[in-house]
């Protein structure tokens, strides 16, 4: 009985040993097969397959602002536009604002203050608007002094003093009876800069006047029932284009005047 037990144990040991050997042999076979597979590197793969797609990220391109600014201008057809409004009157009103700007620049914006600079100053007197030269005699006593004689309309002296002080020409009049003495300011950098600022103020006034004419005409177009929406919109754009042209001309005049006042070539 003891011998039978020993024999059974030996049989089990041999079977187990054979199982381990068989398993080990199978693992070794798999390893050999895997070792036979050639290793392909990334560089080799890229060389062999030139059509390999490499993912990249594309960013949205920003809009070209310069192209947006350079929009095509609206073509002006005065013959068609005249069927809806008075083109000549429109342009005359805008030209009037431009001429007023030129006149103001000539009379009120000079580096060297002279009698002509203050002659056209608006004075409110007796419920009406007058120019200073209509109410007084203006002479230049010497290079450093202007004299304004208001003996004919002494009641207008307070209004004249106020207008001269607010003219933007850096003038400080002194009253002696019915006579106003106005020292001519020195030509300083500050004085030049103040004159340039006054030029900008006059330009803005001109620009607003042109836009007012534009708005008035556009409103009149919208009230015309016979015009289709597309036609009315096209005419509106033409009116705006005409106004832009006058404003552009005013800007050139301003730029030239400011260079003159500041002393830049």
Quick overview of this protein structure:
The chain has 265 residues and is α+β, with helices and mostly antiparallel strands. Helices cover 60% and strands 10% of the residues. The chain has helices at residues 2-36, 42-48, 65-69, 78-81, 87-108, 115-119, 132-135, 157-165, 189-222, 229-262, and strands at 122-125, 128-131, 137-142, 145-149, 174-176, 179-183.
List keywords for this structure.
4-stranded antiparallel β-sheet, alpha+beta, two-stranded antiparallel sheet, 10 helices, flat, 265 residues
Give a topology summary.
Layout: H1 2-36, H2 42-48, H3 65-69, H4 78-81, H5 87-108, H6 115-119, E1 122-125, E2 128-131, H7 132-135, E3 137-142, E4 145-149, H8 157-165, E5 174-176, E6 179-183, H9 189-222, H10 229-262
Antiparallel strand pairs: 1-2, 3-4, 4-6, 5-6
Overview of the molecule:
With 265 residues, this protein is an alpha+beta fold. Helices cover 60% and strands 10% of the residues. The protein has ten helices and six strands, in the order ααααααββαββαββαα. The chain has helices at residues 2-36, 42-48, 65-69, 78-81, 87-108, 115-119, 132-135, 157-165, 189-222, 229-262, and strands at residues 122-125, 128-131, 137-142, 145-149, 174-176, 179-183. It has a four-stranded antiparallel sheet with strand order 3-4-6-5. The protein has a two-stranded antiparallel sheet with strand order 1-2. A hairpin with a 2-residue loop joins strand 1 and strand 2 (128-131). Helix 5 runs parallel beside helix 10 and helix 9 (189-222) runs antiparallel to helix 10 (229-262). The N and C termini lie far apart (131 Å). Mean pLDDT is 78; it is low at 48-70.
